[in-house]
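Hey L., structure's done. Input below.
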Amino acid sequence: MIRKTFFIFIILLFLPVIVFSFGNKEKENFSPDKETLLKILEKYEKQWEKQGIKNYTEEITYIRASFPPEQFIITVSDNIIQNWTEDSGDKTFSEDFIKSLTVENMFDKVRKSINSEKQSPFGFIVSYNEEFGYITELSYLPANNKENSGSRPPFDRNYHIEVVLLDLTKKDIE
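Output:
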């Protein structure tokens, strides 16, 4: 009886791992084409625009391959950056880089990646906020596809951007 119970316990313990591994293989082989990616981007961008949000504060975590994670807080008013802070406090990043992290410019960044005609050893992964449509995560990582198997991406070029918090001002919520 103890052996049977132990055997059932082991099966139940490893069942999620087995199911998860089969599920991941299907997802790895799914690679949406350019048109599908653009339609998804446009859907969420229109959703964001429809909200009419022009004033917000976003907290962002930026991770580069060879550096520790960096935190930014960016305040936007009438779609213009009013202020930003870095966790280091030094403001070592350029204003152009900080501008690239605003909601509107993140859409442009993804669009440029989708529309790029250059073959790249990198690919990107993007996630959207279902309620408001803004990009919550953008990762630019070495691609694992056959087309790019001959070229090696530089280790320090990949990054991950995560919008940890998007705080809307009261006048945009009303």
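The longest helix spans residues 2-29. Helices lie at 2-29, 34-51, 95-99, 103-115, 170-173.

-- N.
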